[in-house]
Each structure stands twice: as C-alpha cells, then as structure tokens.
Amino acid sequence: MRIRKLAPSVRVGGRWLCHLEDGTILRLGESEVVAFGLGTGKELDEAELSALTEAARAAQVREKAVELLSARPLSRKELVEKLTARPRNREKEPLCGREAAEAAADWLEGLGYLDDGQYARTVAEHCAAKGYGPGRIREELYRRGVPRDCWDGALEGLSGPEEAIDAFLQKKLRGAELSDPKVRRRAADALARRGYRWEDISAGLRRYGAEPEEW
C-alpha cells in the first residue's frame, strides 16, 4: 500500500493525515510519523500497514483522552468509562475497547496528567467548600470511581468540621431555640445527611448552646 499524501492537519495541532492510495485516511501523531519513517510515496507492506493502522487507532484514543481531561478533571475509572462508552447513536461502535482505553490512561499517568490522588484531593476540597462532611465526601469519591486507597489522604488534607458545622447551624437555625427538640432533631438530621459524624454534630450543637440533657 502506497502513501499518496502525508501532511499536517490544519485543524488539530500535532496531528498528521496519512492518505493511502485506497482512499483511507489515517490520523497520526508526530511520534508515529517519526517511528514509522513515513513520507509521501512510501510503500507499506502488509505488516507495516497493520502496525500503522493499530498505531493510528491508539493515537486517536490518546487524543480523545486528552480532550476529555482538558474539559474537566477525571478519575482513571471515569476516563476509561468515557472512552469505552457506546455513542448515543447506537448504530456506531464505541471509540475503543477497554485494553486501548487502559493503555491511554497509562500513557497519561506516565505524563502526570492523570492522577487519582490529586483528583481525590480536588473532589474533597470542592465538597468541603460546599459544606459537606467526611461521609458525604466519601460517597462522592466512590461515585466518581476514585480508588479507596486515595480517600484517607484526600480527607486528611481538609480542615476540621467545626467551622462548616457552625456556619450551617447559624444559617439553618436563624435564631430558632434549640430547646425545641424538633428544631434540634431537624438540625442534627440535616448535618447527618451532609455527611458529618454524630460526635461532630453534638459538639456543634453544644457550641450553639444546646445542653446534652436536652438531646
């Protein structure tokens, strides 16, 4: 198979378009162009064509992975799931299989662009800023596919829950009397739903003036 034309893409930087004589267009990265010694007029034997086609698929997956990470941070699991997801048009096949997606994830991890530990810290800080406690943050890390061995490190970097609990109680109660058991229960339940532990909730209620015997 002869390469009819090899030229850089005018739309995507770093991409090369390899036009084969049968009309096929392979989208390649600069590394593939160099590695295969490609050029206009080059003849490719069957083995070279097969290897080049496979390299083009891998380059396409890597390019999509970079595009996804550029849009927003992702965990490795989220990235792999997006790369292997079936398109909305059910007649089309997924971009790639799991093996190719995992290879792209490995490549990005090697470059330092995909880091579950850093992503876990980012998610934890975002949730904490919204007033959520450790329990709710763990739920969010689980939902996003962050490995459990990253959770503790992400949570350890957060400040204590006191300030967030106090701010929530001030906003929630707005001068209501904690002597009313219904008020106390609603406040405690709301904090529990936000992922705070009972010992932190009870300490917050004490700071707000509730006595233990009132609970």
Automatic annotation (TrEMBL):
<dbReference type="Pfam" id="PF21981">
    <property type="entry name" value="RecX_HTH3"/>
</dbReference>
<dbReference type="InterPro" id="IPR036388">
    <property type="entry name" value="WH-like_DNA-bd_sf"/>
</dbReference>
<feature type="domain" description="RecX third three-helical">
    <location>
        <begin position="163"/>
        <end position="202"/>
    </location>
</feature>
<dbReference type="InterPro" id="IPR003783">
    <property type="entry name" value="Regulatory_RecX"/>
</dbReference>
<dbReference type="InterPro" id="IPR053924">
    <property type="entry name" value="RecX_HTH_2nd"/>
</dbReference>
<comment type="function">
    <text>Modulates RecA activity.</text>
</comment>
<protein>
    <recommendedName>
        <fullName>Regulatory protein RecX</fullName>
    </recommendedName>
</protein>
<dbReference type="GO" id="GO:0006282">
    <property type="term" value="P:regulation of DNA repair"/>
</dbReference>
<keyword id="KW-0963">Cytoplasm</keyword>
<dbReference type="GO" id="GO:0005737">
    <property type="term" value="C:cytoplasm"/>
</dbReference>
<dbReference type="Pfam" id="PF02631">
    <property type="entry name" value="RecX_HTH2"/>
</dbReference>
<dbReference type="InterPro" id="IPR053925">
    <property type="entry name" value="RecX_HTH_3rd"/>
</dbReference>
<comment type="similarity">
    <text>Belongs to the RecX family.</text>
</comment>
<feature type="domain" description="RecX second three-helical">
    <location>
        <begin position="115"/>
        <end position="155"/>
    </location>
</feature>
